[in-house]
Write a structure and sequence with these properties.
Chain A: It is found in: Nucleus, Nucleolus. Chain A: Residues 508-528 are annotated as: Disordered. By secondary structure, chain A is an alpha+beta fold. Chain A has eleven helices and 28 strands. Chain A folds into two domains: 26-318, Methylamine Dehydrogenase, Chain H; 365-485. Chain A starts with 20 loop residues before the first helix and ends with a helix. Chain B is mainly beta.
């Protein structure tokens, strides 16, 4: 005697994006905290030391935020005009910033007034950075020059006038105190060595360069400009490694995730894309409400901070990890677990006679009812709110099973207004779903057959029927449109594909084949 | 406990404990219609047959005791303990005409010791009755006999020599049909239970008065009740029908019922063991179920499952070499041809089977194995009407641990219309596994096993790789070349050849008029040929090197097959109402073998089964059978095969020695048309190759006898051991002197040896040398002396063997 076979619930492929480890990782952030700044947020920089405050440069101010605070910890306001590129020194004590008024200011993080003012540029300074030895400052300006300054005596050490357009990005080497790279709107990247008077390497990006990033190993350089993100191999003399074109507007900022495995790029197209740095494929994508100007990641990816043109600063914090939660849960449940563990761990000995209990087949409620041929009840169970809302495939599978048994009509008949409207609302919600349509159309036809005599008696049912009708009309229009598009595509493909000369033999005795193709098929046949 | 079952022309005796067939009681020359235990002796049984004889058997030993010749076809047999020496049989009223009228006749069996007895004392009891043996029954203690006609119940009382009739209206108010289908009587009370067409059961009482009879109605079955039986004590009534649910009603408390559902096919017969401990149901799908008191199925005796119709091709599972075809509804059956045994049923549809007439079920319409046997593809469909067609393509992977197929991918609605053909490539290149399906919607699709896109998915699954079409014609068939580098798809009149590597259309071949029905590539040295059968009765052969037609011959090919192990191809041609077989090589103009009028009707299913051991036959006419067997299924569902002359000799020899050997494999299909096969076999006796039932190849008679007997009927192992060893010894002696008579003598000697073996073995030692010499040098010795010497010689061997073992 075979056991009852439960209703087969087909597994439909999930639509939409696939769930990968990446999406799980990058989705594991809380809803963003949004802070309104005074103007477009042009730069964000994390302090390299604990407590990892970050400096947000927006309009004429630089705000310092703590990792978890929503209010600025400290504010630097002594700028005459728009401030640019507030950056921490590697010990987190000093902060440097450029300004529209061409003066570079150096602040003590604990103080308010600028410690030093470096004057020498003639136009706005968009790039500032500390060198690795901590005693010098690199600046780049709209006057096409970049300079090195000495902090102790605020003297200008060196000036490089090699770029032919605004310098908008620059980065110093973390391993060598004399090396730095600048990027300019003249489409070029230049690598400078402070020990010589000119650039040691020039790389053409092909678009105005907006952002630069050096890998921790400093073998690779990433540049962003136009819609492109390009990776260059510095050790091979600036050879292009890969060019990524995943944004559809200018890429404005770059960041590396803490372990160097992922590269993030933000763009004016309001997306932040995450790339795998081994395959350079996009593995995740964040959407933001406005064009993105700046982007930074806290150490260990604890938070993602994004600054936008609409002067909104968005901070996403990572959710506390699951493990911590689980261990806490385990501890609470442990005593009861032990009781059962004792029983479960009993292993029968070799010569023990095992008396096994027959395994009872577990059946879902609708299956139990189907087993007893209670068709109407089974349909009712399958139409319960949570099933029809969450898992319409179960409802559809039960309807299909009833149809297969030839009892669908019996199950649908004899329902009152409330039950009928429940059925109709399920049909309205799922009828046009391509996965369910074949089954539900049969059911809809039966419902109309059975209940056509009562049309006009209940306003609720009438309204739903009208709704269903309009839904079907709309669907028909869609299908018609789709067929038209398909036809158009067919003609386009037919005209664009190269014409293949197909040997087509007529009724004539020789099935002629062009010489080239017949030789091509010959070796395959002669293998045997 | 033994179970007797009428099967074709024999009665089979099964053991209820082991499900093993012990003997087949053979002797009848036509369909056996009834089996009955002899009321006076429970170790003997009567059987009746359409050949006009009633035979009495000792079924424990499988011996025919007596044959009573009646002279008329017998449709049913009844007996009662009260009527000693009388049996009641159903025979036609007019012997020569094929009339629909039958009568119940009492036959006095003459008491004499002869084997063949002619029973002449016939007296009619009831006339104009139903031929259905279930529609008549003996009443309490044989006092009366009841018989049911379509709408009439007739009770004949032996004491009063009087019969009463009770009538029912043709239809009751609710439109149910009142026609009687079966009948049974309570063993201790005056109560008759009758089953009806509309599923009702009526219990008739008080029927010894014409007017005052009463009946009560029980209703559970939704369609006709096919069998009814009371338990021996009369406490329960068992009923069964097409629902395949055994229902047990409590007598006098009919509202209490027990059910045993999902037994398999429709229940055709129910029987109860005399002690009431075991019930037994036989099913329409060639199955017998033994049930312990309506609680548990204790044994299932299952032959080759007889499905409604075979829609899949016959296939061979490449690993177990089992024959695969449709079995139970929604299942595929795996049947071992070597062991003549059903291996298992694979549930393809995986849905509860609801039996209801007019309900459209999912049917498995197509199946295919890949070359290595690790994948199985099946197609199931429901509702043949175009707009509502439900199609599923399922792919099953072989699970090495379970040794069965596990569902891997279900593709619902793989095509928009019915699938016409399904094929796997013969060799896979190791990286890609592919499947091609063609459909009425004008497309063919290539499916490929693709690795999962993401690592966390369970495993590889199948997806569509290519969709091909040709001028919106309907593809009917497809075939891969032997090296799988080419795919030929027949689009009506046009054969298109594609390369699966890049899915390019390489060439088209056409030979109108007539659509291509079947396509087949040649194998091995003939792999350059492509053969196609068309609806306009042409068989075309194209040479793919020149892309030209090699030859055409006019024959109405219904099936074209290629032997996987040789160049041979088999074509079944339909000619003037019967099928001819031609076996040929595509490259040679002359057929290797042809057989006209193989069977009537079309042959649509056939398969080449690779042999385990290649034959080295040099006989020209049977050379094509060296690599493979050819099995085919006729329209009347007989499964037939070809054997060579040598095999036939071996078979007849072994069947002489072995009483046990029988044609188990034949029974399911044979049951239906055993007679038909007979006619088929006779004309072919002249031809060198004959169509024979499948038989087990046997090595040694003694060992077979030992191994095939069920353990519980064998004597003790110590007794068997010496017999076994002796049987081995005889075979050693065979080459030196083989004589049929002497062998028989030796058989008789065995008894003596056991008793006095110990003493004589001592004497035998010194006499060893002389005995060897005298055996060959002195032919003048008397028979007695020769026998003595031979015995000594044999004993000496066994003694030496004992020494060696030490």
């Amino acid at each position: 005697m075979a056991s009852y076979k439960p209703t087969n619930i087909p597994v439909y492929p999930k639509l939409g994006e696939k769930i990968t480890e990446e999406t799980l990782y990058w989705k594991n952030y809380k809803t963003p905290i949004q802070i309104k700044e005074f103007g477009a947020v042009s730069n964000i920089h994390f302090s390299p030391v604990t407590p990892y405050n970050f400096a947000v440069t927006a309009f004429t101010r630089i705000h310092l935020y703590g990792l978890l605070s929503q209010e600025p910890v400290k504010t630097f306001t002594r700028f005459k005009d728009t401030a640019y590129c507030g950056r921490f020194r590697s010990d987190g004590q000093l902060l440097v910033a450029g300004c529209e008024d061409s003066v570079v200011r150096l602040f003590d993080v604990s103080g308010k007034v600028a410690l030093r003012m470096f004057k020498g540029h003639t136009k706005a300074v968009h790039v500032t950075d500390f060198t690795t030895d901590r005693y010098q400052i690199l600046t780049g300006s709209d006057d096409y020059t970049c300079c090195l300054w000495d902090i102790p005596n605020s003297a200008q050490l060196n000036t490089y006038q090699e770029h032919t357009d605004y310098i908008r990005c620059g980065v110093t080497s973390q391993l060598n105190r004399d090396l730095f790279v600048t990027g300019s709107y003249d489409h070029s990247l230049k690598v400078f060595d402070a020990r010589v008077d000119k650039s040691v390497m020039t790389i053409n990006h092909g678009h105005p360069v907006e952002s630069l990033l050096l890998y921790p190993s400093e073998g690779l350089l990433v540049s962003a400009g136009g819609r492109y993100v390009r990776v260059w191999d510095l050790l091979k003399g600036g050879q292009p490694l890969v060019s990524l074109k995943n944004h559809h507007k200018t890429v404005t900022c770059l960041a590396l995730s803490s372990n160097g495995q992922r590269l993030l790029s933000g763009s004016l197209d309001r997306h932040v894309k995450v790339y795998n740095t081994t395959s350079y494929k996009v593995v995740h994508n964040f959407d933001y409400p406005a064009a993105i100007l700046s982007l930074a990641l806290a150490p260990e990816d604890e938070s993602i901070v994004v600054g936008m043109t609409n002067s909104i600063l968005s901070i996403k914090h990572r959710k506390p990890s699951e493990e911590a939660k689980e261990t806490a849960g385990h501890q609470r449940r442990r005593p009861s677990y032990r009781v059962y563990a004792h029983r479960k761990s009993y292993v029968p000995k070799q010569d023990d006679y095992l008396v096994s209990k027959p395994v009872r087949q577990h059946l879902a409620k609708y299956d139990k009812q189907l087993k007893k041929f209670n068709v109407s009840k089974a349909l009712d169970t399958a139409l319960e709110t949570w099933i029809r809302g969450r898992k319409p495939e179960i409802t559809v599978a039960v309807i299909r099973e009833l149809d297969r048994r030839g009892t669908l009509k019996n199950a649908l008949a004899g329902r009152d207004e409330q039950e009928l409207s429940r059925l109709l609302s399920f049909l309205i919600a799922n009828l046009v779903d391509a996965r369910f349509a074949p089954v539900l159309i049969t059911a809809a036809e039966m419902i109309l057959d059975i209940y056509q005599s009562i049309v006009g008696q209940s306003p609720v049912v009438d309204k739903q029927l009208l709704h269903l009708q309009s839904l079907l009309e709309r669907e028909l229009d869609y299908q018609k449109d789709l067929l038209e598009v398909l036809g158009m595509l067919d003609t386009m493909f037919a005209s664009s594909l190269p014409k293949v000369e197909l040997p087509c033999s007529g009724i004539s005795t020789s099935n002629g084949l062009p010489q080239g193709e017949s030789t091509a098929s010959r070796p395959q046949v002669q293998v045997n | 406990m033994f179970l007797l079952c009428a099967s074709g022309e024999s009665v089979k005796v099964f053991s209820t404990a082991t499900e093993e067939c012990l003997h087949a009681l053979q002797g009848h020359t036509d369909l056996v219609t009834g089996v009955l235990l002899r009321p006076s002796n429970h170790l003997q049984a009567y059987s009746c047959s359409l050949d006009g004889t009633v035979r009495l058997w000792d079924f424990t030993d499988g011996i025919l005791i007596r044959t009573y010749s009646i002279g008329y076809p017998i449709y049913g047999i009844y007996a009662s303990a009260k009527h000693e020496g009388v049996i009641f049989i159903i025979t036609p009223m007019h012997t020569d005409t094929n009339s629909e009228l039958f009568q119940l006749v009492a036959v006095h069996l003459p008491q004499c010791g002869e084997q063949l007895v002619e029973a002449k004392e016939l007296s009619a009891v009831l006339s104009n009755i139903s031929s259905n043996p279930a529609a008549s029954a003996f009443g309490r203690e044989g006092q009366y006999i009841v018989s049911a006609k379509p709408l009439q119940l007739e009770v004949y009382f032996f004491k009063k020599q009087k019969s009463y009739s009770f009538f029912l209206k043709k239809d009751n108010q609710k439109g149910g049909k009142n026609t009687f289908t079966c009948i049974t009587c309570h063993p201790t009370e005056d109560c008759i239970a009758s089953g009806h067409e509309d599923g009702k059961i009526r219990l008739w009482r008080n029927f010894n008065h014409r007017k005052e009879y009463t009946y009560s109605t029980l209703h559970w079955h939704h369609s006709a009740v096919s069998s009814l039986r009371f338990t021996p004590e009369g406490t329960n009534l068992l009923s069964g029908g097409v629902e395949s649910v055994l229902v047990q009603w409590r007598y006098n408390q009919e509202s209490q019922r027990d059910f045993l559902p999902r037994l398999g096919g429709a229940i055709t017969h129910i029987s109860v063991s005399p002690d009431g401990a075991l019930f037994c149901t036989s099913h329409s799908d060639n199955k017998i179920t033994i049930i312990q008191s309506c609680v548990k199925v204790s044994a299932v005796i299952q032959g080759l499952v007889k499905g409604d119709r075979i829609r899949t091709d016959l296939m061979i599972e490449p690993r177990s070499k089992a024959l695969v075809l449709n079995g139970k509804p929604g299942h595929l059956q795996f049947y071992s041809l070597q062991r003549d045994k059903l291996l298992y049923n694979l549930d393809i549809v995986q849905q509860e089977y609801i039996h209801e007439s007019g309900l459209e079920q999912f049917e498995v319409v197509m199946a295919a194995f890949d070359a290595s046997g690790s994948w199985l593809a099946t197609v199931e469909e429901r509702k043949q009407k175009a707009p509502e067609l439900e199609l599923n393509l399922k792919l099953w992977a072989l699970d090495d641990q379970k040794q069965s197929f596990v569902l891997n991918t279900t593709i619902s609605a793989p095509h928009e219309a019915q699938i016409t053909a399904l094929c796997f490539p013969h060799v896979s290149d190791g990286q890609t596994t592919m499947l091609v399906s063609t459909s009425r919607d004008g497309h063919f699709k290539a499916w490929q096993l693709a690795a999962p896109a993401h690592t966390e998915d369970e495993g590889p699954s199948w997806s569509c790789d290519f969709l091909g079409a040709y001028h919106s014609l309907v593809p009917e068939c497809c075939c891969f070349s032997a090296d799988s580098s080419l795919l030929a798809v027949g689009f009506q009149e046009v054969v298109t050849v594609w390369t699966p590597a890049s899915w390019e259309l390489l060439t088209t071949l056409s030979q109108p008029p007539g659509a291509v029905r079947d396509l087949c590539f040649g194998r091995l040295s003939c792999s350059k040929y492509l053969l196609g059968a068309t609806t306009s009765k042409l068989l075309c052969c194209w040479n793919l090197l020149t892309c030209s037609l090699e030859w055409v011959t006019s024959m109405d090919v219904s099936l074209l097959l290629a032997d996987p192990l040789s160049e041979n191809m088999a074509a079944f041609c339909f000619e003037a109402g019967s099928t001819d077989l031609f076996v040929f090589k595509p490259g040679e103009p002359r057929p290797l073998f042809s057989h006209k009028a193989l069977c009537s009707g079309r042959v649509t299913h056939a398969v080449f089964v690779p042999r385990e051991v290649m034959l080295e036959s040099c006989d020209e006419a049977s050379q094509w059978l060296n690599c493979s067997h050819l099995y085919f299924l006729t329209q009347s569902m007989d499964l037939l095969t070809f054997i060579t002359k040598a095999e036939e000799d071996k078979l007849t020899a072994s069947s002489k020695q072995l009483v046990v050997s029988d044609d188990v494999a034949m029974t399911p299909f044979h049951l239906l048309l055993g007679k038909h096969r007979d006619q088929l076999e006779n004309p072919q006796a002249e031809s060198r190759l004959s169509v024979e039932p499948i038989r087990q190849p046997s090595s040694s008679a003694g060992i077979d006898e030992l191994l095939q007997m069920p353990a519980h009927v064998l004597p003790s192992a110590s007794f068997l051991c010496s017999m076994f060893v002796q049987s081995l010894l005889i075979s050693v002696n065979k080459p030196s002197e083989q004589n049929k008579e002497k062998e028989e003598e030796m058989e008789s000697e065995k008894e003596e040896e056991d008793s006095d073996g110990e003493m004589e073995s001592r004497i035998s030692r010194p006499e060893h040398m002389p005995s060897g010499e005298s055996g060959c040098a002195a032919p003048a010795l008397t028979k007695e002396e020769v026998r003595e010497l031979r015995r000594l010689k044999k004993l000496d061997h066994s003694w030496m063997k004992g020494l060696l073992d030490q």
